[in-house]
Design brief:
Length: 281
Amino acid sequence: MPSVTLTGRAFLTVSGKDAEDFLQALITTDLPGMAASEIRPGALLTPQGKILFDFLIVREGDGFLLETSADQRDGLIKRLSMYKLRAAVEIAASDVSEAAVSWGEAAPAEGAEDSRFAKAGIQVRRRPGAGGSDPAGEYDALRIACGIPESGRDFDLSDAFPHDVLLDLTGGLSFRKGCYVGQEVISRMHHRGTARKRPVIVAGAGVLPPTGTELLAGGKPLGALGTVVGDKALAIVRIDRVADALAAGSEITADGVPAIVMLPEWSGLSFPQDASEVPGS
């Protein structure tokens, strides 16, 4: 049973009698149906529909606990506070800077289950604080194997749509709830099927080069490597360009290292047969 302690994390609480309604009108996650033992991903978007802040959210007391990266915490609190107005909510930072993550059949009962990995058939439990002694790289390897990207490592904030990072498939994006910031753009993208980028699992013929290295096929960029562990990596790619490369039999490389790319099997996604299947490409 791998168990790791992740550093550089940050937590904040949104509590009070209006907490659920307050967040429901702002973030991508649909909160009313979320179980107390469940962690879901979520995001606060720009009006243009791109991810401004991303986080994990779980119920706590009369409100919610949000986990994000340390460099996002203060900005997220400030942005949420801008929308507070007269809502009966309290937004407070925690001084906890670590998260304990365990997975596998023998994962302990502490913490809540991360729904992102549940979609991939793996039970991952998570809670604030230290609690694991295995190398943090094992968690990165798990994320790569499951195709679960995270900001800062795999994509830049304000540069990715929720579909680009699978929020539409991991429980972090609702198309049935009411309006929230950026909802109109995301709903239109979803119903028109215009998502052009998706995360892929990259398997290299040898050790892959560092994060940020471009994936190329026929001299055209497909995307860039995100988290890298040995000969495996995550990358967010243009699926239409990958489709063209596969159809043409072009080799995909990262700084000269041959590689194959795969969409996460659990996602049910596939590369389009041709670029015309991706509107706006």
